[in-house]
Specification:
With 157 residues, this protein is α+β, with helices and mostly antiparallel strands. The protein contains three helices and seven strands. The chain has a five-stranded mixed beta sheet with strand order 1-2-7-5-6. Helix 2 packs across helix 3. The model has no long low-confidence stretch (mean pLDDT 96).
Length: 157
């Protein structure tokens, strides 16, 4: 039986990439600790094809950065699904997102970039997708990507 969240993804025309383990870092893609699921920072990749290499404000517009954030968030959901045995309905609440934007020194719209990830969570989870968030502009990222997004989810007891 398909879950409610999987049905919502299908209705929205949203496919998730494969949950790929880190290429370099010696970490887990996700870690379930009690009722909290921590998903490690995810870069904008589609099934191992890393995209959006460069800086927002130089190589990419803010709108393109939002697209990169959305792709990173799709990878967050893929890792959440894998960690929860394929059942995204176990997510009770998106608790917090963190977004790190590889930005030029003068780009101040980093929050707008990370909105691409935040909006996806609300699209998928509705009210339960509303979350706290931290955003930072940084000078360097793994593989030179434009963004990395990580998340914390509250899991049903």
């Amino acid at each position: 039986m398909t879950g409610i969240i999987e049905e919502r993804l299908a209705a929205l025309g949203i496919a998730l990439p494969e949950a790929r383990e880190a290429r370099v870092a010696k970490i887990r893609g996700a870690n379930l600790a009690g009722r909290i699921l921590y998903v490690s920072g995810q870069v904008p990749q589609w099934n191992g094809d890393i995209r959006f290499i460069g800086k927002v404000g130089a190589d990419f517009t803010v709108a393109e950065g939002r697209e990169a954030a959305r792709l990173s968030a799709l990878n967050v959901l893929a890792h959440a699904r894998a960690a929860l045995g394929g059942d995204l309905d176990r997510i009770e609440k998106v608790a917090k997102l963190r977004g790190y934007v590889n930005a030029t020194e003068d780009l101040t719209m980093v929050a707008e970039v990370v909105n691409g990830a935040s909006e996806l969570m609300v699209e998928v989870f509705g009210e339960a997708g509303q979350h706290a968030r931290t955003v930072a502009g940084v000078t360097v990222m793994p593989f030179g990507v434009a963004i990395e997004v990580e998340a914390e989810f509250l899991i049903r007891g």
